[in-house]
Design goal:
Bound molecules: zinc ion
Number of strands: 3
Radius of gyration: 18 Å
Number of helices: 14
């Protein structure tokens, strides 16, 4: 999902020629770039760190393990994206795809509201509101989110969701992806991710915010997060925040860690590979938990 997903995202940014080049490059050298990135991250984490940061790291590790343990226990846990990738295509009229499409369409209005609120909150948290031009851009971004009307299930999109910028009112959702997210929480998270791409649009409405989030995430994790990686991470962060707000607004008897985990479980992969546009799925979980220590605490302590 992630690989193709990124190409679909890239397609809107760069156009078809660059897409072909990206496909070619990714086909030829995936192993080597991955190894280099791991080495770099390893070097950085081996530096001595102060006590607080060691504690923060341990907390993030325990919390991210909690997410993936919850997934295994939860009858409505998400399917990891590497597992989705290996599955056969699923017809649009299969019961799982239909259920997923209905869930996505039902939750779209809530996801729109939650994304707008999360974007406003993050803009305040990262001190980017009030800066030159940003307030106008975020208004534009919000208007784009509010204009999204449909989710279109698509068998050929398999385990991807995507948005074509020439039709920013529709999120195209692969049927394997729809079927792989069997909880409202997971669906809110992924819908929110796509809505942030739409919000940014081709005018880079949210670039300042993406940079601010990525700068903070880089300093906390030691990972290199720039350009498209910054956008993807912010999309995932908004997904997690929107889901947390959704959980707060819809009380249930299910345990808090179980519900929060669902927003991140699709990243609980066995094959943990990133690319130029995405952190690896498990690093994505870690980065989000570093950025939101309150989420880590709730996952670990259950409140
Ligand atoms: Zn994306």
């Amino acid at each position: 999902m992630r690989v193709n997903h990124s190409y679909l995202d890239q397609f809107r940014l760069l156009g078809g020629a660059a897409l072909s080049l990206l496909l070619l490059v990714a086909t030829v050298v995936p192993g080597s770039t991955q190894a280099q990135r791991r080495t770099r991250a390893g070097v950085q984490t081996s530096h001595s760190r102060d006590r607080t940061s060691t504690e923060a790291r341990e907390m993030v590790e325990v919390a991210s393990e909690t997410v993936c343990n919850e997934r295994v226990r939860d009858p409505r846990g998400s399917i990891p994206i590497d597992d989705m990738q290996s599955r056969p295509s699923l017809p649009v009229d299969s019961p799982e795809a239909l259920a997923g499409a209905q869930r996505a369409q039902r939750l779209l209005p809530a996801a729109r509201r939650l994304v707008v609120a999360s974007l406003k909150q993050l803009s305040r948290d990262y001190n980017v509101s009030g800066t030159k031009g940003f307030d106008l851009k975020i208004q534009r971004a919000i208007a784009r989110v509010e204009a999204v009307k449909d989710v279109r299930p698509d068998m050929d999109s398999r385990d991807n969701a995507s948005v074509l910028m020439r039709n920013p009112r529709t999120i195209v959702f692969g049927t394997i992806f729809l079927a792989g997210l069997p909880s409202d929480e997971a669906m809110i998270s992924v819908l929110s991710h796509e809505l942030v791409h739409i919000a940014d649009g081709s005018q880079d409405n949210l670039k300042t915010l993406f940079r601010a989030v990525a700068g903070r995430a880089s300093s906390l994790t030691g990972l290199k997060i720039r350009d498209q990686r910054a956008e993807e991470l912010t999309c995932d962060l908004v997904g997690a925040l929107a889901t947390r707000s959704y959980v707060a607004a819809t009380p249930s008897y299910e345990a808090l860690p179980q519900r929060i985990s669902r927003s991140l479980e699709h990243n609980c992969v066995d094959t943990d590979e990133g690319d130029d546009d995405h952190l690896s799925p498990r690093d994505t979980i870690r980065a989000i938990l570093f950025l939101r220590p309150a989420l880590s605490r709730e996952l670990v302590y259950g409140r």
